[in-house]
Amino acid sequence: MSLEAKNISKTFNSFQALKDVSLTVQRGEFMALLGPSGSGKTTLLRIMAGLDTQDSGEIRFDEEDVSGRSLRDRKVGFVFQHYALFRHMNVSENVAFGLKVRPHETRPSPPEIKRRVDELLHLVQLEHMGQRFPSQLSGGQRQRVALARALAIEPSVLLLDEPFGALDAKVRKELRRWLRRLHDEMQLTSVFVTHDQEEALELADRVAVMSQGKIEQVGTPDDVYHRPETAFVYEFMGNVNRFDCRIQDGHARVGPLVVAAPEFPSARDLPGLAYVRPHDITLRAADEPGLPAVIRHVFTAGPGIRVELQRRDTKTAIEADLPHDASRQLLLTPGTEVSLTFSGARVFAAG
Ligand SMILES: Nc1ncnc2c1ncn2[C@@H]1O[C@H](COP(=O)(O)OP(=O)(O)OP(=O)(O)O)[C@@H](O)[C@H]1O
Fold it and tell me: ABC transporter domain location, by residue (predicted)?
């Protein structure tokens, strides 16, 4: 089932939470809605689900406008951040719930419901826990029950609102890989809300980056990370250094460094911002050409070396990520004067 949000706007009191948002999720796709707190991710997801109503615009499932239909009529599976399990029901009863409350004509027989519940508990690897109550489960187990319950109705789309947000980092990682496999095996169409970049990049086929009620960019993880279209996306997708610059004729000047700015071929001394990822910074000896800086801190624990520097002229902080063998070529100790060059930069107009 494909899913389309078309020109969706939503206002709460006088606050506009969504501003003319359009997004298409292809059949079988795993889409992440990524953005900071308050950017409108949950509001968009709830409108897709039919848990909330838009002020204007349409929600289409396989080209059909479902705007007037409820969650149940849309056949949507929804998983909330906080395990919305029924505490007085055991695991099997929780999973069976969506089937038991179906109208008589479409409700499966009790043996069929039992068979489906057993199958789902097997799928979420909780086959021996059917008799337990939610209070007797770990957080990760509870979210797997919530997922089994959402899947019980054989949803056309699966919508997940930060489903692993309350879990610790290791469990979160395991569960997201497992969820991705499940999505593929069951050939679902899924939309997943998160504010965690790593989670979105690892899990999704495409990522929609949201800010202030709008979608800033939709693209593959590779696109949004390596080819951000806006300054916001650049800053949001991982660590980045920001330098004031002046743009002139397709180039930008950061102190003595000149970087390419091909988006501005005919700029005339335009104020700009140059964004440089920490791994795109190279440290050289102080007498070589580059941007003068001094090393402040060196962190060697981790996959590479992280160096915190201070720019000599403006005194602003800069972060560089270097491979471990960089310390063989250069003395990496606090107080060392160095020269910086950039192997990649992206320039945007300021303001
Ligand atoms: N029922 C509501 N009444 C009033 N304002 C609301 C309501 N729901 C959401 N908002 C506001 O709309 C904006 C977007 O909220 P939303 O929950 O969609 O953001 P989000 O990106 O999912 O954030 P978070 O990651 O914190 O959940 C926020 O400023 C929020 O305060």
Answer: 3-237
